[in-house]
């Protein structure tokens, strides 16, 4: 019976919601800020990316599906890589910090590339990367867009979010 304790411990650590704080595996990208690792959907901590079908405008006024491009950017960062994700907050899906084996932080990478924005909190360390992306006009910052949380709210309220809709609340 010496093996019973380790088997029970391992089972509890890998059971959903029962202390499974670190997940490892390849990623299946769900959206620009969400992925599935080891069968569990996670949301990347500290960021928000455009939703599928969300339209943004290039500097010349041409619209594009920035949600699809953001998801593609996350696919590029995770292709062929086994991730290590640590759940840092509960939720549906839970928030996680995900890194590649060499320590590259996916949230930081998405904000730096300009395909996600940092949650606007004073203590969010990703705000520095957002300022850099904005100054260099990376990703979303090369044109105009409505922040993803505002886009979702406007959509939930029945407001226009499609082509031709204002991209700011001003």
Topology:
Layout: H1 4-14, E1 22-25, E2 27-31, E3 34-37, E4 40-44, E5 47-48, E6 55-58, E7 63-65, H2 66-78, E8 83-89, E9 95-99, H3 106-113, E10 117-118, H4 127-136, E11 143-144, H5 148-156
Parallel strand pairs: 4-9
Antiparallel strand pairs: 1-8, 2-3, 3-4, 5-10, 6-7, 6-11, 8-9
Helix pairs in contact: 2-3, 3-4
Average pLDDT score: 85
Shape: globular
Distance between the termini: 68 Å
How many domains in all? 1
Identify low-pLDDT runs.
1-18
Structural category: alpha+beta
Strand line-up of the largest beta sheet:
1-8-9-4-3-2
CATH class: Mainly Beta
Rounded Rg: 18 Å
Strand portion: 25-35%
Number of helices: 5
Overall helicity: 25-40%
Order of helices and strands: HEEEEEEEHEEHEHEH
Overview of the structural elements:
There is one protein chain. The chain is built from 5 helices and 11 strands; from the N terminus they run H-E-E-E-E-E-E-E-H-E-E-H-E-H-E-H. The protein has a single domain, classed as Beta Barrel (OB fold (Dihydrolipoamide Acetyltransferase, E2P)). The N terminus is likely disordered. Helix 2 crosses helix 3 and helix 3 packs parallel to helix 4. The strands form 3 sheets. Strands 1-8-9-4-3-2 form a 6-stranded mixed sheet. Strands 7-6-11 form a 3-stranded antiparallel sheet. 31% of the residues are buried. It starts with a helix and ends in a 14-residue tail after the last helix. By secondary structure, the protein is an alpha+beta fold.
Main traits of this protein?
OB fold (Dihydrolipoamide Acetyltransferase, E2P); alpha+beta; 6-stranded mixed beta sheet
């Amino acid at each position: 019976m010496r093996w019973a304790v380790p088997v029970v411990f391992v089972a509890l650590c890998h059971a959903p919601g029962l202390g499974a704080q670190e997940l490892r595996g390849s990623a299946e990208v769900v959206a620009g800020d969400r992925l599935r690792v080891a069968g569990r959907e996670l949301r990347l901590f500290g960021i928000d990316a455009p939703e599928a079908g969300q339209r943004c405008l290039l500097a010349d006024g041409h619209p594009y599906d920035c949600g699809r491009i953001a998801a593609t950017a996350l696919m590029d960062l995770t292709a062929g890589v086994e991730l290590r994700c640590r759940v840092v907050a509960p939720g549906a899906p839970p928030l996680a910090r995900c890194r590649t084996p060499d320590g590259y932080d996916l949230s930081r990478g998405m904000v730096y590339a300009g395909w996600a924005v940092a949650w606007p909190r004073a203590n969010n360390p990703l705000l520095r990367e957002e300022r850099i992306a904005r100054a260099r006009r990376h990703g979303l910052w090369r044109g105009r867009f409505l922040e993803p949380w505002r886009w979702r709210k406007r959509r939930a309220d029945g407001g226009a979010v499609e082509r031709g809709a204002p991209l700011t609340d001003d």
